[in-house]
Design a protein that fits this description.
The structure holds two protein chains of two kinds. Chain A is α+β, with helices and mostly antiparallel strands. In chain A, helix 4 packs across helix 5. Helix content of chain A is 47%, strand content 10%. Chain A has two domains: 143 residues, no CATH class; 68 residues, no CATH class. Chain B has one domain: 2-Layer Sandwich (Beta-Lactamase), CATH 3.30.450.30. Helix content of chain B is 33%, strand content 24%. Chain B contains five helices and five strands. Classes of the chains: A alpha+beta, B alpha+beta. At the A-B interface, helix 6, helix 7, helix 9 and helix 11 of A face helix 2, helix 4 and helix 5 of B.
Chain lengths: 278, 153
């Protein structure tokens, strides 16, 4: 006769959870537990998170992409280092950014140091946004092939540590993250402090509509670098984020006509009528 | 034509070189390091190097004199903005405004060379030399040449 043991011999395995105390001791962590696990198992594939993607090869990061950060192509073409058409042609011939860059270096159109520098800066920049706290879980798609044979893959631990350090850096400059994502406007104060050449370039782009990402793209400058200057200028009272439209904060049902034929409302009304009829 | 590591290894061949790094002075990221790190921690050294470089690069007092006058009273110039426009200044103009930064202490020299690029960037080479063997004048000239070769085609 079989009996069901009511007390299991061993407790069930613990679910993976963020151990913040341990992360502090390690000096990193708190980014993405999934990414840490993928690095440990030397995974190859693409990690898709809410704000961007990381490409892994044998557990190390070879590329990162985020809609919030200008890509390698923008950094190289925005100020004429590389002609946009030359880049597009190289991309069409090789099929991906990685090989396109190498093709241009081989063709003598780009210094290897310039490519490497821009690639690393763009990778850390996109990873900063990709690893930002997200409201949805990440997904990982394993790839059978190892990624492109990249000269300088970045260890996951280094990337997470740098991302957390960057988050702290911004927080120390000015703790309000409003200028990171919202449209920006110039705040007028009687005696503004002198701004630097790089800050003046950012100020010239302000038009009450553009966000930090738009400005970074326009200047061909990494987005994080733009956030740093914006937070400094926000702290100095030179730049402010525009308040979100008040309509968003008010009653969500406001503005919906009384006779709206939203199926959910119709269903709720029928349910209410049925309950009242009981 | 060298990449970042080749450039740093070349810097390490200078007499008395103890360590070299390529540092982004806006973010504080070390884009490459070779040899020893001052203080024993690469990342901490990069952050401190970046802070020093940023301060030097942003102070109007250290900018070249020729257009120094136009930058003074920046309060009124804010809207005019003549430098740093995309495409308006293909060689990066006066960004960064200074070439290098030298620090000497009892036992060593630190040399920071700003790298001028045709794309938007904020990077500098950091070379750490022992005082007994290092030749500051030679290192300054060589590091300037290396910074140029690193990014120019």
């Amino acid at each position: 006769m079989t009996a069901v043991r009511t007390t299991p011999a061993a407790p069930p395995p613990r679910l993976p959870a963020r151990d913040k105390a341990a992360a502090r001791d390690r000096g990193w962590g708190g980014g993405s537990p999934m990414l840490t696990r993928l690095a440990a198992e030397r995974a190859t594939g693409v990690l898709v998170r809410e704000r961007g993607t990381l490409r892994l090869s044998r557990g190390r990061v070879v590329d990162a992409e985020s809609p919030a950060a200008p890509g390698l192509d923008v950094l190289l073409t925005a100020r004429g280092t590389l002609d946009g058409e030359v880049w597009r042609q190289a991309l069409a011939e090789t099929g991906d950014r990685h090989h396109a860059g190498h093709r241009l270096v081989e063709g003598g159109l780009l210094a290897p140091g310039a490519l490497e520098l821009c690639r690393l800066v763009a990778l850390y920049d996109a990873a900063y946004f990709t690893l930002a706290p997200s409201s949805t879980p990440g997904r990982f798609r394993y790839a059978a092939e190892d990624g492109p044979d990249c000269g300088c893959p970045v260890p996951v631990a280094a990337l997470e540590r740098e991302t957390l350090r960057r988050r702290d850096l911004l927080h120390r400059i000015w703790p309000d993250p409003a200028t990171d994502e919202r449209p920006l406007t110039r705040a007028h104060r009687a005696t503004p402090p002198p701004s630097t050449v790089r800050q003046r370039a950012v100020l010239a782009e302000l038009d009450d509509v553009r966000t930090a990402t738009d400005i970074a793209r326009g200047l061909g400058r990494p987005a994080f670098h733009t956030l740093v200057d914006l937070r400094r200028m926000a702290a100095a009272g030179v730049v402010a984020a525009r308040e979100p439209a008040p309509a968003e904060a008010s009653d969500p049902l406001e503005g919906i006509p009384a006779d709206a034929v939203d199926p959910h409302i119709t269903l709720l009304k029928r349910l209410r009528d049925a309950l009242e009829a009981l | 034509m060298p990449g970042i590591d080749e450039c740093l290894l070349e810097a390490m061949r200078l007499p008395g070189a103890r360590g070299a790094a390529l540092v982004d002075w806006t973010s504080g990221l070390a884009l490459g390091t070779v040899g020893e790190s001052p203080g024993g921690d690469q990342e901490a050294a990069a952050v401190e190097t970046a802070e020093l470089a940023r301060l030097a690069a942003e102070q109007h007092a250290f900018a070249p004199g020729a257009d120094g006058g136009t930058h003074e009273g920046g309060t009124h110039k804010v809207g005019i903005h003549e430098g740093g426009t995309p495409g308006g200044n293909p060689l990066g103009g006066d960004d960064p405004p200074i070439e290098d930064l030298i620090i000497s202490n009892r036992d060593s020299y630190h040399l920071l060379r700003f790298v001028r690029t045709s794309f938007d960037s904020s990077v500098c080479l950091h070379l750490w030399l022992t005082r007994a063997e290092g030749n500051l004048a030679l290192a300054r000239i060589r590091l300037g040449e290396m910074a140029g070769r690193l990014v120019l085609e």
